[in-house]
């Protein structure tokens, strides 16, 4: 745990950020985007389209990254979050969020939408972190984040490499079938999902629980994320951002 408040999770970084424009001519404008590298992405936005920035931010800088939501299990999950944050009126999961109010700034409106998103499924059950990159611009959300979503401050810490499981002497052995409930089994600890659902029996997927092996409290999303690290094909960070679907719409 570092001074930023939250230790880096192992694995790749997928974040959805909020930019704020400091240009007096466009002051108050905001931009929501996806990134795998926050520092580089801000430089691209301030460098214009020739440097990889978006059309909507080109020539309107300087831009500051105010906050970033990270901890998504995949780039797809982050991109879906980004789209809903950009288009809350078109997302069925945010139908209860009213339109921008008269006199409400774009910044305040996007924070209001974010507060509802962090409380709405499926995002409410992801192991996310709300990070204020600019703590001096922090504002309290109209709804507090879920208890398992920590607040962090400052730039994201360097990402730790994902741990890989050591091969055990019985890794090649056939697992014994569960006589009670076949199919609902955690591939990490060979225990049933029901172990994690004891506190929430009505839910389909767990939020968190105690590992029956190490007895530590774990977020289910983190477990699934680590499972994917060994099987998911690695994609270059630059390709993820340069092939962003919103850039195709802006050309």
Average pLDDT taken over every residue:
75
Helix-strand pattern: EEHEHHEEEEHHH
Shape summary: globular
Give the end-to-end Cα distance, rounded to a whole number of Å: 42 Å
Strand content: 5-15%
The helix content is: 10-25%
Uncertain parts: 162-190, 230-239, 245-251
Looking across the biggest beta sheet, what order are the strands in? 2-1-3-4-5
Summed up, the helix count is 6
Class by SSE composition: alpha+beta
Q: Work out the radius of gyration.
A: 20 Å
- How many beta strands in the DSSP annotation? 7
What's the story with the biggest beta sheet? 5 strands, mixed
Write the topology of this structure.
Elements: E1 15-21, E2 30-35, H1 38-47, E3 63-70, H2 75-86, H3 106-117, E4 129-132, E5 151-153, E6 208-210, E7 217-219, H4 220-229, H5 237-242, H6 245-250
Parallel strand pairs: 4-5
Antiparallel strand pairs: 1-2, 1-3, 3-4, 6-7
Can you characterise this structure?
There is one protein chain. With 251 residues, the protein is α+β, with helices and mostly antiparallel strands. It has 6 helices and 7 strands, in the order E-E-H-E-H-H-E-E-E-E-H-H-H. It has a 5-stranded mixed sheet with strand order 2-1-3-4-5, with helices on both faces. A two-stranded antiparallel ribbon has the order 6-7. Helix 2 (75-86) crosses helix 3 (106-117). The termini are far apart.
Q: In short, what is this structure?
A:
The protein contains six helices and seven strands, in the order ββαβααββββααα. With 251 residues, it is an alpha+beta fold.
């Amino acid at each position: 745990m570092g001074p930023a408040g939250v230790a880096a999770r192992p694995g790749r970084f997928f974040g959805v950020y909020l930019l704020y424009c400091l240009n007096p001519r466009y002051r108050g404008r905001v931009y929501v985007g996806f990134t795998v590298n926050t520092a580089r992405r801000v430089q691209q936005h301030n460098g214009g389209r020739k440097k990889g920035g978006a059309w909507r931010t080109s020539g309107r800088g300087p831009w500051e990254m105010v906050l970033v939501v990270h901890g998504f299990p995949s780039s797809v999950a982050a991109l879906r979050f980004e789209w809903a944050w950009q288009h809350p009126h078109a997302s069925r999961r945010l139908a209860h969020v009213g339109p921008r109010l008269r006199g409400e700034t774009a910044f305040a409106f996007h924070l209001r939408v974010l507060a509802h998103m962090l409380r709405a499924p499926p995002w409410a059950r992801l192991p996310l972190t709300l990070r204020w990159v600019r703590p001096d611009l922090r504002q309290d959300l109209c709804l507090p984040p879920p208890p398992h979503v920590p607040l962090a401050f400052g730039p994201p810490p360097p990402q730790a490499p994902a741990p890989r499981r050591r091969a055990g002497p019985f890794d090649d052995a056939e697992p014994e079938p569960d006589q009670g409930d076949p199919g609902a089994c955690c591939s990490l600890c060979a225990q049933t999902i029901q172990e994690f659902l004891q506190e929430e029996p009505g839910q389909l997927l767990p939020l968190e629980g105690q590992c029956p092996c190490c007895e530590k409290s774990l977020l289910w999303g983190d477990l699934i994320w680590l499972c994917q690290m060994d099987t998911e094909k690695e994609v270059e960070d630059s390709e993820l951002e340069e092939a962003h679907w919103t850039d195709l719409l802006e050309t």
